[in-house]
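User: Hey, quick favor. My workstation is busy. Could you predict this chain's structure for me?
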Amino acid sequence: MIKLGEFQEMELLEINEHGGYLGLPGSTPILLPGQQLPAGAKAGDRIRVFVYKDSKDRPIATVHEPALTLGGIARLQVVSTSRIGAFLDWGLEKDLFLPFKEQTEKLHKGDYVVVSLYIDKSERLCASMRIYDKLSSDSPYERGSKVHGYIYQFSETLGALVAVDLKYHGLIQKKELFGRHKIGEEVEARVTGVRRDGRLNLTIRSKAYRQMGDDAEEVYLKIQDLGGRLPFTDKASPMVIDREFGLSKAAFKRAVGKLLKEERIRITEDGIEILQ
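Assistant: No problem, here it is.
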């Protein structure tokens, strides 16, 4: 049986001007385009191919490796959008369709999304951004581990959901999110805890003593960009601080304190100035 969305070995039945026709017992032969036929291929050879559907919804074979196969998860780029969905680059001649109903937020050309591959009711391969149930809680990571992943969804109550290694459940809690983040964003994170169900709690901030130095430099450079003076102090509202620096008020105060201790800035009644 020929399986969509998977690699399989098929027998080369015949070759003509269009390419090679491949088959399995009990199935209708499908085309492997001529330019993809291995050199010296002949009837009876077995060729490993990936099967999908062409622009006319006909099964077609390819020896090219797509970025995503059935049961897998991948980060793909949006190449175009329409009122019925988006189209993603997955490395094959025909772009992968992401139906509107399988999107978790509005997409634009150039965006990156984390998706899984499924077969729809019309027997076509499609992408879905709804990958929560595709991820595993059985990760090898422990508290303190450094991990790599991609943000695939935002929750107003929880924070940013992360596909760690494109395999495991991860969460950056809302209190850990500062600044602007987006779907498909690549993150390097540290595991702050492993929940009883195996899901990982993450932070994208360095340990406090390292982060304070990073934050201090960010604040200093921002003040430089503003001509050497910041028009508010460390008593500003958390909303203003988050908007300008992507920092919590506590982190901002620590950064300002470090710069004061190093005698690089001074605080006035209505702002912060760089010391020349």
